[in-house]
Design a protein that fits this description.
heterodimer; A: 118 residues; mainly beta; 6-stranded mixed beta sheet; globular; B: 114 residues; 7-stranded mixed beta sheet; 4-stranded antiparallel beta sheet; 0% helix
């Protein structure tokens, strides 16, 4: 079973509009972390935003916010005021915490390709 | 350097050859991760180091793949008897707090097996 599911292979948004990229996850752990990364055509993965499983407030970083709905196991990324430079692949990732061994393993989704239209 | 570096940026090899891919993490980061990314896919976990030891190598596809991090800093991913299916971008990432913090990725090595 997929642990991270991104159901939107591609999305379009008009410049200056907001867009939501979906991510659902599957875990039975109480402690985990959720991340979003951006991968432009240059290929480098860029960290955008983080949400811990115990964080009660939704994370925000500038124009990025993470809509965390724990009961629904969703961690959608909201980009406000889209810019042409936001065109890229976006990956949702989950950190699986194993405190007994002190290890942290990451699982990535298949990504959503966002195209911002002028 | 300030970020994660990987060398070479591109590697073209012939089927059956041996290759080594190098990763130099951010100074002070104890956790180092290797991923493989095929076209149009997300990064696929290969192996994770904490310090010098492999904390989790469950993602290595078979015994042709091996990685080391002898001094807890630079890591080398080694692939023996390369196959065409090994062609992909190999990404390295490092993280603080043993892997708890966000990962910082290198630019990747694009491996092409002819």
């Amino acid at each position: 079973a997929q642990k991270i599911t991104q159901t939107q292979p591609g999305m379009f948004v008009q410049e200056k509009e907001a867009v939501t990229l979906d991510c659902t996850y599957d875990t039975s752990d109480q402690s985990y972390g959720l991340f979003w990364y951006k991968q432009p055509s240059s290929g480098e993965m860029i960290f955008l935003i983080y949400q811990g499983s115990y964080d009660e407030q939704n994370a925000t970083e500038g124009r990025y916010s993470l809509n965390f709905q724990k009961a629904r196991k969703s961690a959608n990324l909201v980009i406000s005021a889209s810019q042409l430079g936001d065109s890229a692949m976006y990956f949702c990732a989950m950190r699986e915490d194993t405190f007994t061994s002190g290890t942290y393993k990451y699982i990535f989704g298949t990504g959503t390709r966002l195209k911002v239209l002028a | 350097g300030a970020g994660v570096s990987q060398t070479p940026s591109n590697k073209v090899t012939e089927k059956g050859k041996y290759v080594e891919l190098r990763c130099d993490p951010i100074s002070g980061h104890t956790a180092l991760y290797w991923y493989r990314q095929s076209l149009g896919q997300g990064p696929e976990f290969l192996i994770y180091f904490q310090g010098t030891g492999a904390a989790d190598d469950s993602g290595l596809p078979n015994d042709r793949f091996f990685a080391v991090r002898p001094e807890g800093s630079v890591s080398t991913l080694k692939i023996q008897r390369t196959e065409r299916g090994d062609s992909a971008v190999y990404l390295c990432a490092s993280s603080g707090r043993g892997g708890y913090n966000e990962q910082f990725f290198g630019p990747g090595t694009r491996l092409t097996v002819l």
